[in-house]
Each structure stands twice: as structure tokens, then as C-alpha cells.
Amino acid sequence: MPPTDRIRDHAGQGATTVAAHRARRRLRADRARQLADLLRRQILTEAFPDTTLPHEDALATDYGASRNTVREALDLLRAEGLVARQPGVGTVVVARKYAHGLDRLMGLAETLHEHGRITNEVRTTAAVRAPAPVAERLHVAPGTDVLYIERLRRLNGIPLSLDLTYLPLDIGTPLLGADLENTDVFRLLESVTGRPLGHAEITLEAITADAHCSAVLEAPRGTAVLMLERLTHLADGRPVDLEFIRFRGDRIAMSGLLHRTR
What we know:
The chain is 36% helix and 32% strand. It is an alpha+beta fold. The strands form three sheets. The chain has a six-stranded antiparallel beta sheet. It starts with a helix and ends in a 7-residue tail after the last strand.
């Protein structure tokens, strides 16, 4: 075989080896993400008996994965701030996510009551001229004043969400004398109006936290937060509460029960 052919043949074998190695790494990375998803769910549902995860060898056996795959999966969870490695102990859960249901219309204190006490730091209450999109959604005339409330909500003292709320002035004004620090707005709305809430339209998306949001929620600047936009109506259909709620994504998990209908 001529020297040039031998060089080409050797180069081709090398390229094949590199491609195969990259393919194996991609496959392991894919499996690590799959395993991280399963472990994250186990942590969320408190499936492990304590805050310490099983040993890497046990996880590899339980999930049919290689030890390298298990290590990569745990690295992903560590990067999320969900777990940490403690010398002499192993991998432990250092953060907790709380399940926030999306299949019932409830306030945050009602949703998370079993996990502790929700408190509200009322940062702003003011009558403001409704921006056009707010006026349209609350069915008030353009240029009408509405009540704006900004609250930092904590669970057992830990920052959980930043809530920006707009309410029609005739309904919102009576709330100013209410206990906004310890009572869900939903309960106050039903008390003030004497009517039950009916339904809400929601949109959930991930956004990048701005400097103000990061500082208030004590989250790293530029981190992703869950934005829940919710327009709540009374049982008679009147829209009364437009909220933009920014949740710390590392402390909340949205869940619900969905039915398929024809």
C-alpha cells in the first residue's frame, strides 16, 4: 500500500474512533439527563426515606445505569442547587421544591398550607392609571385608576414569589384595611364582594429574572424564574384580579391533573 494510502487509512480509523467516542459521550449525557429527571421527581415527592440519597452503586443498580451515568446525573442536580455532596455522608438534598397545583383555583397559603406558613411582605400599594392591557383585561375604561399591590411572599421565612397584582378600584380599595400580610387575596376578595370566585385564565412560562426580581427573591441575577400570569373572575364572570407572579424555579414545581376530552 502506498504511503499516502496508509496515511489516509490511518486518519480514517482515527476519525471513526473519535466519532464513536463522541457518540458514547452523547449517549451517556442523554441517559444522565433521563436519570436526573427521575431522581428530581423522587426528591420532589420525598420518595427517599431521609435527605441522603442512596449510594451511587445502589442508584446504578436500581436504575440500570452505569456509575459514570449516575455521577453525571448527580452533577446535573448539584448544578441546579438541589443536592450537594458532603464528605463522609454522600449526596444530600439541600433544597426543596414545593408542589403548586394548577388544577384548582386556590391562593398560595391554601395550596402550600401543609408545608408551613405563608407570609406576605407588602412592598407597594397604590392607585395607578391602568396600562391599556390591564384595563382591557379587567374590563375597565382606558385611563381608569386601578389598585396595584406588590408583595413578596415567603414560606417559613424563605422567599418564594414576587406577586404584582392589579384590581379594579371599587373592589381593591376595601382591601387596604385588610390583613394583606397574613391572608390570601382570594379570601379577601370573596369576603369583600360577598361572592365566590369562579375561574381563572392562566399562562405559565419561564423568564429571566431582572435585577429587581433577583434582589427581592434573593436569587442569582439572570436566573430563570417561573412566571404565572393569572386573570381571576368572580362566579358571575367579572374579572377582578390580574396577577403576574414570579416564582423561584428552584423552590416551586407546578403540578396538575389533566383530563382528555373530545
